[in-house]
Design brief:
12 helices; five-stranded mixed β-sheet; 14 strands
Length: about 375
């Protein structure tokens, strides 16, 4: 049996994510520098085939939308203050169905908060970032392997569904270096974007059973290509209360919900007869894994669910949680944003929360909540 040769090195998550994006086919990086996404900016400039230093975050996303419409596969990185400025443009790209990737490195809020203090406080805004409550894919890496694999999945999902995709990460994940064995990383193939065969007039928003219309870039030599962010019919003609236009708007929702299993990722570490479950996401998964190991050494039957596809919420997440008598949800924010997304503000008897702000959750805090 062949074994891989160890390739240990000091590395940070930023470099892994940038490299994975490029290998998966992202070819243009557009960004405005902001802490704690600084290393993304640096590595993006060094590694992407095309790099554009934008003068501000609004320009960043407008350039990205233009690049995507022209057939490029752009990516950017930012933090909450930058995302706040991008919201209108993100909605525009969503309605136009433009594939691109946005990395958010979370910091302590509110407002500009503390740029050098990590947190998990930006999930709630992504739940409602698209006007009308429309879903958008949000992935969150829990370790370096995830940073590599989910970055590639973000490109794949963006292309497959013609959509913006978010990678929600943390300062600790992307700025801190640690010893890591690169041989653990799976090979990444480039996401191919074959040009569709169009007979007759090209209708840029006419979809088949996949619910995703075929994509042709602006400037196509054979077909007139229209795109618009206003409510539109299949031909990109602006309509208001037209049944075809309203059906097209509903399709923007259904293409994700009807195919949610295709971009749902999680790890479930389970053992027979366990009635207690720890649920977490992102950087807090490190503390949760340590807590799980300690609890099992004490003879406790406990399982661990690390959610990697945070939005839209897949039914399987509820199916797993419902199997347990006691659930501990750990996340580094004030109110428990993922818990609120799952269950609202009403207390749930079997759920106990572990929340913290200003510094990371310690494994012992999770252990105490389980016991």
């Amino acid at each position: 049996m062949e074994t891989k040769t160890s390739q240990k090195t000091l590395i940070d998550g930023s470099k892994l994510m940038i490299e994975a994006l490029v290998q998966a086919g992202a070819d243009t990086f557009v960004a405005y520098p902001i802490t704690p996404s600084n290393w993304m900016y640096k590595y993006g400039k060094e590694r992407f085939p095309q790099f554009y230093a934008a003068p501000d975050e609004i320009t960043t996303f407008q350039w990205m939308a233009g690049m995507s419409a022209a057939g490029r596969m752009p990516a950017t990185s930012s933090a909450f203050p930058g995302i706040a400025l991008m919201v209108e443009s993100i909605n525009m790209a969503y309605a136009m169905e433009l594939p691109l990737v946005i990395i958010i490195t979370q910091r302590l809020g509110p407002s500009t908060g503390s740029a050098t203090t990590g947190a998990q406080g930006d999930l709630a805004i992504l739940k409602g970032i698209i006007s009308g409550g429309y879903p958008v894919p949000v992935f969150s890496p829990s370790n370096f392997e995830d940073a590599w694999e989910l970055s590639a999945k973000a490109v794949e999902t963006a292309v497959k569904f013609r959509t913006p995709v978010f990678l929600l990460t943390s300062k600790e994940m992307v700025m801190y270096q640690k010893s890591f064995d690169l041989s653990k990383l799976k090979p990444i193939g480039k996401v191919e974007r074959p040009e569709p065969e169009i007979e007759g007039e090209y209708l840029p928003y006419k979809a088949d059973q996949s619910l995703v219309p075929p994509f042709l870039p602006l400037g196509n030599d054979e077909h007139l290509v229209r795109i618009t962010a206003s409510t539109h019919d299949e031909g990109a003609n602006i309509r208001k209360n037209d049944p075809e236009a309203l059906a097209n708007s509903r399709r923007l929702h259904d293409k994700f919900i009807n195919r949610i299993d295709e971009f749902t990722f999680f790890d479930l570490d389970e053992q027979p007869d366990a009635k207690k479950l720890i649920v977490t996401w992102g950087i807090t998964a490190d503390a949760a894994r340590d807590a799980l190991q300690s609890l099992r050494q004490q003879g406790e039957k406990v399982d661990l669910l690390v959610v990697k596809s945070l939005l839209p919420v897949a039914p399987v997440i509820y199916d797993i949680i419902d199997r347990y008598d006691k659930v501990v949800m750990a996340e580094e924010n004030l109110t428990g944003q993922y818990k609120e997304i799952l269950f609202g503000n009403r207390p749930v008897k079997q759920i106990k929360q572990v929340n913290k702000m200003g510094n990371m959750i310690h494994p012992q805090e999770i252990i105490d909540a389980v016991l």
